[in-house]
């Protein structure tokens, strides 16, 4: 928690320095993707236990993330938050792999997220459709 | 042909081309930086390294080769993403910053704490790894700093906080290359807190115990060698020094003439007892001072000898008890000296001078100044180079001083005059006056020849209380004084037009003109 607060304070300080950066379209897209990243990962893991490589493949296919780097910090944080749990599995092609799955709390969390996402989608739809008309 | 480096990535050994290794380690450092102040950075870094190892294995299998090249590293970076991609919740501006620092990082060097080879926090081993030293020397240095000045502890803690721990394999391999900024220090401070907390856990305590016992072992090990070579040599020197001092002290005590005065001429001796009685007043005081001084000199000598014997033969003395006794004796001596010093000092509180004037009845225009033969001291002292103790003699009833000071100046009228100025000190004016008057000084006048004794005396009962005798010869304007060769013994700092020193003035005629002496 403490870390997070520090983080936000830091971001605030940084963004004040360079407010125009936020208007960047690439940035806006990236922010959006980041917002739904958790939801996507949790959905994949809800279907089946996976290791990061699998998750990446699926996400790359749906173009939500393009690089693996984004994934590792997120997985670790979700695990530390008690939403995910993992087990080690030996691999023939290298180091042992971490296979992640949802905890019961994680499943609850995912349901809430999905609910929120539905609301958001319909809200965005309503707003943008109104605007178009 | 390229040079390769063997690197451990995520627990697997890879042969990596040097350049590729450099860029990989720079990449990992940048990733770590962009992960920022997160508690789980280490875990994330480990996952990333695992993944990189996996990718490397795939590349090697696919390409049927054994060495990871620059191309492979570039592929890994492409798959994993720029360091900025790892920064989850940061704004793009910061990401951009992170990536610029990453590409600028070419020549960065970094200190890491080497927790694998650590005694406590891995500071010494990390620094040593960086410079390629043996950590033992640094540890000894730190222990000396801690024991000697206490600052070593603070320094160690500060280094513990500001130097990051090498956790991932690549960091351990690098042990170099990152700037210390406020943010990383903040994170490291958290790490440090965790480390310290860890030290208080049973495992940490065990580690501390192990560290201290290992340190003690290492110390005693090196101490063995140290004592054997240096310690014994030092012990030998100390022993010789101590014995020399002791012999000198015993000799001086037996001959009881060791009142030392350090002067330009070195060390001169005067019978201590007589001087002491004349200076401190009573023989009791003299004896007290005598023993106190011996004690003050003896204690350090004994300390020296103890240290020497300990170093040489390692006999376990009861250091504390000996120290306490020696300290007690030293302070007793010191207090005695202080009290007697103050008592004696008060006897010098007031000063008085008594002047008697004699008018020389002569028709001559020249006054001849001479010194009588010195029956107490020598006629041939080098001019005023002699010390107080050399010109001091104890007779049965009086103390003889060998330094009357004769000066020449202009007379207020047309007469030659001799002013005898007797000075002495006492605890009050009456005492000072009486002592001044008691000073016995003789000079003889034969027409124009004035002969001064090169000594004066005061009764023994008056003690040595700043007795001084100044002779002031006054010459009328236009008249002349002749300084005999022998007068060199007594004249003191006579002002003259040529600015000659006293010893160069003798043997000449000097005429008084406008308050100054001119050579005739």
Task: Give me some keywords for this one.
heterodimer; A: 133 residues; mainly alpha; Arc Repressor Mutant, subunit A; two-stranded antiparallel sheet; B: 520 residues; alpha+beta; 3 domains; six-stranded mixed beta sheet; four-stranded mixed beta sheet; 16 helices; 18 strands; 19% strand
Total helices of chain B: the number is 16
Individual helix count of chain A: 5
Strand order, biggest sheet of chain A? 1-2
CATH class of chain A: Mainly Alpha
Percent range of helical residues of chain A: 55-70%
> Spans of chain B of 5+ residues with little confidence (pLDDT < 50)?
90-108, 176-180, 257-269
pLDDT average of chain B, as an integer? 78
Q: Assign the CATH architecture of chain A.
A: Orthogonal Bundle
Strand content of chain A: 5-15%
- The global form of chain A is globular
Tell me the total number of β-strands of chain A.
2
The helicity of chain B comes to: 40-55%
**CATH fold naming of chain A:** Arc Repressor Mutant, subunit A
Please describe the biggest sheet of chain A, giving its number of strands, its sense, and whether it closes into a barrel.
Answer: 2 strands, antiparallel
Span from first to last CA of chain A? 44 Å
Radius of gyration of chain A, in angstroms, nearest whole number: 17 Å
Oligomer: heterodimer
What's the CATH H-level superfamily name of chain A?
Answer: Winged helix-like DNA-binding domain superfamily/Winged helix DNA-binding domain
| Structural classification of chain A | mainly alpha
What's the mean pLDDT score of chain A?
A: 76
Write a structural description.
The complex is a heterodimer of chains A (133) and B (520). Chain A has 133 residues and is mainly α. Chain A has a single domain (37-132), classed as Winged helix-like DNA-binding domain superfamily/Winged helix DNA-binding domain (Arc Repressor Mutant, subunit A). Chain A has helices at residues 2-17, 25-47, 52-61, 71-80, 104-132, and strands at 84-89, 97-102. A two-stranded antiparallel ribbon of chain A has the order 1-2. In chain A, β1 and β2 form a beta hairpin. The longest helix of chain A is centred in the last third of the chain and has 29 residues, at 104-132. The radius of gyration of chain A is 17 Å and the shape is globular. Chain A starts with a helix and ends with a helix. With 520 residues, chain B is α+β, with helices and mostly antiparallel strands. Chain B has three domains: 4-109, no CATH class; 232-346, no CATH class; 350-519, no CATH class. Chain B contains 16 helices and 18 strands. Chain B has helices at 18-35, 41-63, 70-80, 83-86, 92-103, 123-131, 135-148, 151-162, 169-174, 182-200, 202-255, 272-280, 283-313, 319-346, 429-438, 502-505; strands spanning 4-9, 12-17, 67-68, 259-263, 266-270, 350-360, 366-371, 392-394, 398-401, 405-410, 416-426, 443-446, 449-452, 456-459, 468-475, 480-483, 509-513, 516-519. In chain B, α2 packs across α3 (70-80). Residues 90-108, 176-180 and 257-269 of chain B have low confidence and may be disordered. The A-B interface holds A 3, 6-7, 10-11, 14-15, 17-18, 21-22, 24, 26-27, 30, 34, 52-53, 66-70, 72-77, 80, 91, 93-98 and B 10-12, 31, 35-40, 43-44, 47-48, 50-51, 53-54, 56-58, 61, 78-83, 85-86, 88-94, 96, 183, 186.
